[in-house]
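User: quick one, sequence for these tokens?
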């Protein structure tokens, strides 16, 4: 299941009630881990267009009901089960379920499995400070992203460097690989590998009419693009995920 959510009038109305001032964060997240009241997260990959964060949410804990006014985000569940909620709906997510959210969509994710839940979060553009909380169980409604006291050094974590193309890494019992895509034949190769999901890390697919079919942090099943004629792959890279 892949959900794609656009902001509703309710999202926009609630965002209008929250003062928002984006203050950039000065921190090197590449060699650190960020401790959260619900668990922890760390930066797993970054380029100029996208950041990928690896999250762990403890059983029964939940992220705040929050939105990102300026960035598009997506979630992929890797292990465990989560209850994902927006202002308009709530759904249970299992491994390889994904949600794509356009800017301004308020959302919260709760771990409902006994061992917690592991997931990936994709963000474009990279703006960790782009955050507005509507509700929070931990008293952070009027606070920004976690401060230096919550950020601790940690180097021994599974990460992808930009140069790690075509390198398979097992993360949270899922095989992941960054792959450049130049033509439809490359997509066919990914389908033949029986990958579950592909997430766009950079570039776009453009139709012969000039329409952008997908771009950064869009998520799809690779076979969806096998029969797409007349498309152009512009600096296109994806992260494949196979459970």
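Assistant:
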């Amino acid at each position: 299941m892949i959900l794609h959510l656009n902001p509703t009038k309710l999202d926009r109305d609630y965002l209008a009630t929250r003062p928002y001032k984006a203050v950039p964060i000065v921190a090197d997240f590449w060699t650190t881990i960020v401790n959260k009241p619900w668990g922890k997260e760390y930066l797993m990959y970054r380029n100029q267009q996208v950041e990928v964060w690896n999250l762990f949410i403890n059983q029964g804990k939940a992220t705040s009901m929050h939105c990102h006014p300026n960035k598009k985000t997506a979630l992929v569940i890797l292990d465990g089960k989560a209850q994902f909620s927006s202002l308009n709906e709530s759904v249970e997510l299992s491994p390889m379920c994904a949600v794509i959210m356009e800017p301004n969509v308020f959302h919260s994710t709760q771990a409902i499995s006994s061992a917690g839940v592991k997931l990936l979060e994709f963000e474009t553009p990279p703006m960790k400070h782009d955050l507005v909380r509507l509700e929070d169980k931990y008293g952070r409604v009027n606070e920004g992203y976690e401060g230096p006291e919550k950020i601790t050094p940690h180097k021994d974590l599974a990460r992808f460097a930009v140069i790690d193309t075509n390198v398979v890494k097992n993360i949270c019992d899922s095989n992941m690989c960054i792959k450049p895509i130049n033509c439809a034949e490359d997509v066919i190769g990914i389908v033949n590998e029986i990958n579950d999901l592909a997430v766009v890390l950079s570039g776009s697919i453009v139709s012969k009419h000039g329409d952008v079919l997908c771009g950064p942090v869009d998520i799809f099943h690779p076979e969806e693009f096998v029969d797409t004629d007349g498309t152009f792959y512009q600096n296109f890279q994806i992260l494949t995920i196979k459970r």
